[in-house]
Amino acid sequence: MYAIIKASGQQFKVKEGDIICFDKMGLEPKTEVEFKEVLALYNDGELKVGTPYVEGAVVKGEVINEGRDKKVIIFKKRRRKDSKTKRGFRRDFTRVKITSIA
Asked: How far does CA 82 lie from the centroid of its chain?
């Protein structure tokens, strides 16, 4: 059984027991989270696709922790122009363990 959910502007394919990193939600650890925007639900060979969401489908999860990813370096160079820029970026995330799909 798996579901495709929409969260923080992205789509994720999740199963029970998966650990997913979402954009920062600002929640404490061990907090319950519900995702009601379920786009598709697959169960026992049957696929339910919502228009736009599947009615009555809910994916529940538990917040594990919040943190920051590794730094990503963005380096731009224009040849023969003596022009270059270097920037760094660290993404804030919330790690969630999927507990149930209903």
From this structure: 39
Number of structural domains the chain divides into: 1
pTM of the shown model: 0.83
Which residues, in sequence order, are CB contacts of 18 under 8 Å at separation 6+? 97, 98
The model's pLDDT over 10-20, given as tens digits with 9 standing for 90+, comes to: 999 999 999 99
Domain that holds residue 37: 2-101
Distances in whole angstroms, Cα of residue 23 to Cα of each of 19, 46, 91, 97: 13, 30, 8, 14
* Percentage of the residues of the chain whose pLDDT score is greater than 70: 100
Q: What type of residue is 39?
A: L
